[in-house]
Each structure stands twice: as C-alpha cells, then as structure tokens.
Structure to design on (641 residues):
C-alpha cells in the first residue's frame, strides 16, 4: 500500500493506493488519525485502491468517528465498485459521506 | 474360544495402554515446549489463563484441603497416642505425626482431593469442548490446543498441588496439636517446638517432590482423557470417571515407588 | 461463464483415500472448486461428506492423495505454512463451536488476536461490523450460552469471516434451524459471496438450501463421488443413486444371500 497527501480547498486529501489489507491498514489508520488529530478536514481518496478489507474499512470508521468528535469534515472519494460492495455489506454506504470527486466534496 | 477372546482382550488392552502412554508423553512434551518456547514463537501461553486455573485448582480448594488434612492430623494423633500408650511413649506421637503428615499424608490426601475435584473437571471441560468441535475450531483458527488449553492447566497444577501440600502439612500438624492438647494436655508451643526438632528439610522436600509428580499425573491423565473423548455426553461422563479412577490409581502406585526410592 | 479449464481452482482434491482405523471412508475422491463459486457437498449420513470436510480443513491426514488449498498441498506443507494458509480460510462449524468462556465479541475477535497486530480499536470495530452484517448488533457482550441456535450459527459465521478469508467452509448451515431462519442464513451466505468474492464450500444434507445457494453440487455416496455438476446437471442426472437421493428414496441393494445369512447367524467365513 502507498499513500500520498495533498490538499485542496480546506481539505487534506489522503490518497491511498494498492491493497489496504490486514498488513497495511494500520499504516493507513495512522495517517488518517494523525491528520484528523490536527483538526484538519480529511478526504480519503480510494480511487487507487485495488482491494480494501474489513480492517481497512474499520480504520475509515474510526476516522469518521474521530472527525465527528472534532467537528471536522470527513469523506470518501473515488470509491470503486468492489470497495462499495464491502461498504454496502455492513450498510456503511449509508453512513459515510461519499463523493464522486474532490470538487463535489469541496462544494458540498 | 473363550481363551482366545481373553488373550485378545488382554492384547488389545495392553496395546491401548501403550498407545495412551505414548499420547501422554507427547502431551507432556508439547506442554513443556509451549511453556518454554511459546514466547519465542510469538505464541506465548496466556498468563491470565494460568492464574484462572490456579484459582480454580488451588485457591478454591483451600478450605476443603485444610479440613481434610486437619482431620488426618487428628486421626493420626488418636491412633498414635492409643498405640504408643502401650509403651508409655505417648509424647513421641509428635514425631510420628510430623513425619507421616509431611512425607506421606499431606501430598497424598491433597492429590486425591485435587484429582477428584479438578482432574474430573478438566476432563469434563476439555471433553465437552472436543464434542462441541471447539478444539477443532481452535485448530482451524491456528491456535494450538495444547498451548491454549493444556499448558495453562499443566503449569497451574504444578503450582497449586505443592502449594496445597504445604498448607496440608501445616493443617495436619495443627490437627495433631489440637488433639494432643486435649488428650495429653500438651501446649501448642511445646508441640510445635518438638515438631520442628523432629522435621528435617528433607521431609518437607520429599513431600513436595511427590506432590509435583502427582500434579503431573493429575494434569496429564485429566487432559489426555478429555482430548480423547468420543461418543457425546455419555462419552464425556465415561471419560470423567475414568480420569479420576486412573489418576488416583497412578498417584497411589507412584507414591509407593517414590517412597521406596526416596527412602532407600 | 468461462469453461472450467480456464477458471482458477482454489481447491484441488486428487485421489483422496482415507481410513478411520481399519475402515475405509473415502475412496478416491477427486474434486475441484473454482474461485468465487459456492460448492455444496451433499450426501447422506455415512457418505463421507463430514470426513471430506475434516480433510479439507487439515484436521486429519489422509491415507493417500493430495489436497491443494490456494495452490498449496496441505497434506505436505510445514506447520508454519499451514498457519499461513489458515489466515485465508474461515470455518463455521455445525454447532457453532463458539468458546463458552469468551463473550460473543471476543469469540469473533480471536482469529485477529492470533494472526494480526491490529489496534484493539480496529479489531473491535471489525468484530462489530461483522456482527452488524449477521444481524447481531449489540450482542457482542453476551456469552454464547445466552444465544439461540440461529444466533449461534450467525455468530460462528461472523467469526469465520472476520479475517475476510478467501475460502469459507460451512458445515450444515441449516441443521437444527427452523425453515425461516435457515432461509435467512442462505441469503447471508450469498451476500457474503457477492460482496467479498469468497469461495464457499458448504456441507449439507438439506436439498432445498443446497439448490438455493449452490453454483455447483457434488454428491457423495459411500465414500465415492456420484456426480459433480451445476444444479441443473445434478437435477437432470440419469444416475439412479442421484435421483434416489433427490427423491429421498431409500437405497435398494442386491442381497448377497451367503453373506447375509452369515451375518444373521453369526457364522462369518
């Protein structure tokens, strides 16, 4: 798994790529929580993710909860069909703010 | 025909005995392996589990073990004083009680108690887990059942039985002291002084070595009968009875053998 | 659908022969299961289906033959390799096999504790997510003894899929459940397969649930495979034993007079 940090508007964008699985999700979690602890608004870009498992999704859940506690904004962009199905299984597609692209998130 | 059946039966039983001995040896080896090497394989034996077992095997048995050993002490005093009266040597009863309690009765009574209380419970618990496929579930998850279930019990038994034996030593001697105080008007102070004079470290050690051996017997017989359960709830019941009977049998036989070697 | 030769086999059983003591249980079983399919192994009691499952799970060593899971022959791998393979497989046992001394949540988390170094929080969220999927939200702090039969099966399924395994084995999903609960469980199995792209092997004797969830069915009888095929292929098979099983007709066997008399009179030769 690789990650890249960008910023757009008032968002910090964490772009994950590759496989977010049991081995690599702790790294993703660390990044997500670190940026949220800086009270940033965070967007997770999943467009480069080939596979995300429950541990990855669990890290996203933890991030979203932290964002809500901090009153900062959080969202997902570039959710692939495969990732969407994993989210849908636990009905999380109805929980996360999911955007088509970064612009949509900024204007939302 | 009848002879052939009988010989066949003996053969089968011998074979089964050898098989079982082999099984127990492997189980013992694996338990020791996980206790020592588990840490290095990043699959340590869980410490909380060990303490939980010590609570169940040892701490929960403190009351009943104390009572039994106290009663044995009283009984030895009654018998001893009665016998020694013939020679007018009643006061020598102190030595007799001190030696027989520490070397023999305390480890034996405690072990038989633990075999009946915990040996059976271990077989029933493990046997029920085997029948409910919980042991299979552990294996498919990748958890070694010996490390997860057997090793904590083994270590707890090795701690609890000798600890109870030390308690039993004290309670047995106390039982003797109480009866002697009533019967011989011997004060506790004098009684305990004479006991300490009579006892050598070696007597206590002998009892403790035995109790450790008995602990291994109870753990291994209880565990192996549990892991080899077959045939549903009825099978668990049979295994439980078998476990207690075998444990006590081996304890008494081992006691005889070790008493011989430790005293000659 | 692509032809079988092009599909990736994630389970390959070859010439599997097994014994229980002296008795032969499986007699030359060959079976391939392909990635992403639901394979149902059917058979009556004594057909050897449970034994086959135990071998697929690596709980028993066969007399001969090989079993490849995800390309690795589990009859020959080292313990370390087997441990690694176990990360990719989940098993839901017939009676649930939840550990009575652990809460439902701890039961579900146990594979994570043994195989990963994930943060406690992550593990908890993962377990709760799986319990949500199984409609067991809020039950994590209960003990297994406080659950009903259907709930135990679902909790066991949650534990089986906690690591998002590539292979899921399910032993008798509908045994002991009423038809409604059993149908719900079938739905769950299909949802899991679709969302997580798992390959699923189900062992059952229930025809109805088998036809509902299976992509392909394998029928075992007396240690041998009668037929392996799609649901339609099995339904339309002209093999008599297959039809007998589908129509629940008892087995009719030729009577060997001499052997039968011998059995009755106790004078075996």
């Amino acid at each position: 798994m690789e990650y890249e940090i960008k910023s757009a508007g008032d968002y910090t964008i964490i772009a994950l790529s590759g496989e977010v699985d049991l081995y690599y999700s702790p790294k993703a979690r660390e990044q997500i929580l670190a940026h949220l602890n800086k009270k940033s608004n965070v967007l997770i870009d999943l467009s480069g993710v080939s596979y995300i498992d429950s541990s990855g999704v669990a890290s996203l859940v933890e991030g979203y909860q932290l964002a809500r506690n901090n009153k900062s904004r959080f969202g997902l962009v570039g959710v692939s069909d495969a990732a969407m199905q994993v989210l849908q299984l636990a009905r999380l597609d109805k929980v996360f703010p999911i955007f088509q692209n970064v612009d949509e998130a900024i204007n939302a | 025909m009848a002879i052939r059946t009988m010989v066949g039966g003996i053969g089968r039983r011998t074979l089964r005995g050898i098989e079982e001995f082999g099984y127990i040896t492997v189980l013992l080896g694996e338990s020791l392996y996980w206790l020592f090497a588990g840490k290095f394989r990043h699959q340590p034996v869980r410490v909380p589990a060990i303490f939980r077992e010590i609570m169940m095997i040892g701490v929960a048995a403190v009351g009943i073990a104390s009572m039994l050993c106290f009663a044995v002490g009283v009984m030895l005093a009654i018998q001893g004083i009665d016998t020694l009266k013939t020679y007018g040597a009643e006061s020598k009863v102190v030595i007799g009680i001190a030696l027989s309690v520490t070397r023999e009765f305390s480890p034996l009574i405690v072990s038989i108690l633990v075999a009946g209380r915990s040996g059976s419970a271990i077989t029933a618990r493990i046997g029920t887990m085997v029948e409910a496929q919980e042991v299979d579930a552990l294996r498919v998850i990748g958890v070694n059942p010996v490390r997860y279930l057997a090793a904590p019990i083994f270590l707890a038994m090795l701690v609890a039985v000798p600890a109870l034996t030390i308690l039993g030593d004290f309670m047995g001697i106390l039982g003797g002291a109480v009866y002697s105080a009533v019967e011989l008007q011997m004060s506790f102070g004098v009684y305990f002084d004479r006991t300490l004079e009579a006892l050598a470290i070696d007597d206590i050690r002998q009892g403790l070595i035995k109790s450790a051996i008995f602990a291994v017997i109870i753990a291994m017989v209880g565990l192996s009968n549990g892991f080899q359960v077959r045939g549903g709830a009825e099978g668990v019941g049979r295994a439980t009875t078998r476990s207690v009977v075998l444990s006590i049998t081996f304890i008494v036989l081992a006691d005889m053998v070790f008493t011989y070697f430790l005293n000659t | 659908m692509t032809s079988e030769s092009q599909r990736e086999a994630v389970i390959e059983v070859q010439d599997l022969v097994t014994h229980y003591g002296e008795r032969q249980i499986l007699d030359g079983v060959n079976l391939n299961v392909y990635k992403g399919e639901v394979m149902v192994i059917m058979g009556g009691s004594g057909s050897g289906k449970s034994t086959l499952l135990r071998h697929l799970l690596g709980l028993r060593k066969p007399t001969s033959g090989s079993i490849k899971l995800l390309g690795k022959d589990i009859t020959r791998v080292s313990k370390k390799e087997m441990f690694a393979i176990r990360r990719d497989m989940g098993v839901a046992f017939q009676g649930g096999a939840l550990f009575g001394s652990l809460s439902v949540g701890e039961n579900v988390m146990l594979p994570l504790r043994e195989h990963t170094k994930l943060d406690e929080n992550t593990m908890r969220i993962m377990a709760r997510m799986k319990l949500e999927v199984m409609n067991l939200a809020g039950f994590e702090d209960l003990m297994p003894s406080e659950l009903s039969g259907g709930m135990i099966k679902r909790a066991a399924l949650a534990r089986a899929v906690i690591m998002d395994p590539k292979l899921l084995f399910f032993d008798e999903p509908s045994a002991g459940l009423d038809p409604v609960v059993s149908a719900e469980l079938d739905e769950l199995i299909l949802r899991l397969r679709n969302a997580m792209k798992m390959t699923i092997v189900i062992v059952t004797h229930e025809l109805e649930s088998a036809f509902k969830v299976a992509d392909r069915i394998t029928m075992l009888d007396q240690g041998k495979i009668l037929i392996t095929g799609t649901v339609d292929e099995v339904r339309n098979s002209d093999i008599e034993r297959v039809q007998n099983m589908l129509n629940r007709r008892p087995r009719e066997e030729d009577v060997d007079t001499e052997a039968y008399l011998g059995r009755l009179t106790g004078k075996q030769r």
Remarks:
- Chain C is about 40% helix and 25% strand.
- Chain C touches chain A through 24 residues (CB under 8 Å).
- Residues 179-196 of chain C form the longest helix (18 residues).
